[in-house]
Amino acid sequence: MLLLVLAVFWGLLYAYRAHRRRKGPASFLPAPSSSLTSASPLLFASRSTRITLHNLHLSAQLSSFNDIHISASARLRRSRWKALVTLAYDAGSIVGALGMVGSLVLLVWASIQLAMSLYDKSYAIPPPHTPALHKRDALPEVALPSSSHQAPLTLIIPGVTTPLSDLPVLLVSLLTTQIIHELGHAVAAALESVSLSSVGLGLTVLLPSAFVAFPSGEVDSLPPRPRLRIISAGAFHNLLFWLALVIFSWARLSSALWPVLGYSDVSLYGRVVVSVDESSPLYGHLPRGAVIYKVGDDTLDTGRRAAERWEALLTHRPSPAEHDPPLGWCAEEAWFAAHNASCCTPSHPPIPTQACFAPTSDPAFERCVDPLLFLHSASDAAAPRHRCMTAVDCGHAQLCVRPRSDQELLALTLHIPPWLRGDVDRTGEGDAERTLVWQGDSIEILREVSVGDWLPRSHMLPIGLPLLFSQFFTYLQTLTLSLYFFNLLPLPFLDGGQLLDALHSWWSAPSPSRTLTAESVPLSDLEGADGDGDEFRIGQRPQVDAHAHGKTDLRGAVHVCAGVLLGICVVLGLANAYLDR
């Protein structure tokens, strides 16, 4: 579906561009052959806006913010805080240089760890299983054995490493972090009285982007320190924004925000149902807004966050070594024997409303019983009522029955909030408490049901708003720190490449007035703007000393090494993600 939407979107854009070219002013002179074969990328142009389309890249450049930038630059020049702000961006230059080195170290370390993780998953022999006893109370601590080399980097691939439903939130988070990044370049440029050519947004296939463009001559002609401030300001803003998010999370400000907005925190005892996948068997039976507070025989109020308990219970796999078997139900022997055993035979197709049960004293005595009868016994006087471990816990002529060991049954006990009971009443199930029985792999519940911590006090409040904010906040934290390190990689098309070139030029130049070499890419090109005219002039080649060639070779070697390491990390990350599916 997503591919179809993208194909239609880009098809309409290219159709409009072709229509616009045909409707253009006619020319009676012979047109050059090159103009007949090359399509103009322009989609729309006005005094302050220019929209272009080229190679599945849609770009919108705006010059309407130039006056605001000029005004801000004038205020900064007159401000008494200018010296302090300049010092802060000088610190940002140092942080940027350290971040560039750190990004290379991170790439090397990540490549090694990803390679070891891939080896463990592909060739390593799993360790033999050692039987162990686990008490029911210790269930959250039970975990599957993990690889000795955990991958330090996980590629964010919607539908593979992250849910496809998170794609809109992911794209908005990515665009937000880029806008903050470009704002840093714009503020630092205003501090140095560098005029702004344009700001803009871009879209490449599906990925959004943001950019600011400066006249290349103005940026390249600056002394080294101001140039370093402008180049490193974007990553510096990303780092400051990440620190602000960390402080916000550490201070738990959201815990004070949501109660004011009308939400109650249930994170200590339950999970709020936010959404259910439409393809899930639970869809239509598990109401949005219900609070799940019990999974099977285990409650979620264990003194720690219910989210951890919820995930542990659904991912736990009981082993034969566990000495504490699940509880059964006391059932009248005659009532149990009256049921048939058709669903217990391997050749019989599964029956959704029945499961195979057997007494603890005679496992071969199997019968098919509706699991709901064990949980809603009021409708049948002979139905099981009491829980038991063995027949000793039951009365005369009763059996202690439990699901057969291969039957995957899980009961979910829900609390229905008062504002939701009116809607549930229409289905005839308007009680404050409900119990659902899930037949199948419990991990599917984690995949098909989205749950949260905050319960709205009224039906007027959106149930999914706190979870949406939490997802957005989490992606912001991840992407803004990732963008900080990624942009500081010493590659020619990133800030790190420009930072390395500026440091190299400062180091190799005999005087502060020396400019970048012709091999340098203007910052406006770096930010991805579509340029024409003299906005993208490449500086004149300066005279270099006898050691310049060696230093240039070193700079080129760093570029190549960074590119190779990045490619290795991407390939290894994709391989690990494929094996983790």
Report a brief summary of the structure.
The protein has 581 residues and is α+β, with helices and mostly antiparallel strands. A hairpin with a 7-residue loop joins strand 11 and strand 12.
What does this structure look like?
The structure is a single chain. The protein is an alpha+beta fold and 581 residues long. It has 3 domains: 1-24 and 37-45, no CATH class; 69-125 and 136-250 and 478-579, no CATH class; 265-460, no CATH class. The chain has 17 helices and 18 strands. Helix 3 (66-78) crosses helix 5 (167-191) and helix 7 packs antiparallel against helix 14. The radius of gyration is 32 Å and the shape is elongated. The two termini are 21 Å apart.
How is the secondary structure organized here?
Elements: H1 2-22, H2 33-37, E1 42-45, E2 49-54, E3 57-62, H3 66-78, H4 82-122, H5 167-191, E4 198-204, E5 207-213, H6 216-220, H7 224-250, H8 253-260, E6 263-265, E7 271-276, E8 291-295, E9 298-299, H9 306-315, E10 328-332, H10 333-337, E11 355-359, E12 367-369, H11 371-375, E13 387-388, E14 398-403, E15 409-415, H12 418-425, E16 433-439, H13 443-448, E17 449-452, E18 454-456, H14 465-487, H15 495-508, H16 523-526, H17 548-579
